[in-house]
Specification:
The chain has about 250 residues and is an alpha/beta fold. The protein has one domain: Rossmann fold, CATH 3.40.50.150. The protein contains 7 helices and 7 strands, in the order H-E-H-E-H-E-H-E-H-E-H-E-H-E. Helix 1 crosses helix 3. The protein is globular, with a radius of gyration of 18 Å. The N and C termini lie far apart (about 50 Å).
Length: about 250
């Protein structure tokens, strides 16, 4: 039996089962066997960076970061961390919370943080919806959800992360004028996202022309999943929504 430790839980147990009907929106947590260095990163570095959502949130989220930051962003499901790390390095004045349950992706980001002394990233290794419930209202200036798990089988579609309930949670924690970026390469998931977001009173789609949702823009770097999708002939779509002033 492997002695490798699981990622620590980042939130409390929910004995009241208040959210028991909430289906898990992610797959496996672990991949390859970890090296000694990777295990050390989980044991020693992650505890310093992981957000404890069992504790009350700080008065301002900027206080979570070692760097001096003026606003806070969130990436849900950062995968291998390419986009998260790029944004953190390109925007040192923004504190970025990265949420990811897959162990391999977490250790990649921890390794980069240690090697490059990146001071404006904090991590959550649990369900993003629990993190969203913990975050103070109006605390985020930007949110990224890039290529979320498509759950392609018909019987699994209900596990997809992006729906009206998630958008309700995002509307609460995003400031007026904040930007939500979503990318997918799955056609029917794109339809579901657009129906949910365009029907939500708190979000305005920023596309002005049909080709806009095919363009990433210079501040939207590629992820490895996107490269794979494009290589396999799937069309990647990039959506930007603005949090308006609706309650």
């Amino acid at each position: 039996m492997s002695s490798r430790k699981l990622l620590p839980k980042s939130g409390p147990e929910r004995p009241d089962a208040a959210y028991a009907s909430e289906l898990r929106s992610f797959g496996r947590r672990r991949g390859r066997r970890l090296s000694a260095r990777q295990q050390r990163l989980l044991d020693e570095v992650l505890p310093r960076l992981a957000i404890d959502i069992a504790a009350p949130p700080p008065e301002t989220l900027a206080g979570l970061f070692a760097a001096d930051v003026s606003e806070v962003w969130l990436e849900i499901g950062f995968g291998g961390g390419e986009h998260l790390l790029w944004q953190a390095r390109a925007n040192p004045g923004a504190g970025i919370i990265g949420c990811e349950v897959f162990e391999d992706g977490v250790v990649k980001v921890l390794s980069a943080i240690e090697d490059d002394a990146v001071a404006n990233i904090r991590l959550c290794t649990g369900d993003a919806r629990e993190l969203l419930r913990w975050l103070p209202a109006g605390s985020l200036r930007r949110v990224f959800i890039l290529f979320p798990d498509p759950w392609p089988k018909k019987r699994h579609v209900k596990r997809r992360l992006i729906n009206r309930a998630l958008l309700d949670q995002l509307a609460r924690v995003m400031q007026a004028g904040a930007e939500l970026r979503i990318a997918t390469d799955i056609g029917d998931y794109l339809r579901t996202i657009l129906l949910a977001a365009r029907g939500h009173p708190a979000f305005d789609w920023q596309a002005e022309a049909p080709q806009d949702w095919r363009l990433r823009g210079p501040d939207w770097p590629e992820t490895r999943y996107e490269v794979k999708a494009n290589r396999e002939g799937r069309t990647s779509c990039y959506l930007r929504f603005r949090r308006n002033g609706c309650p």
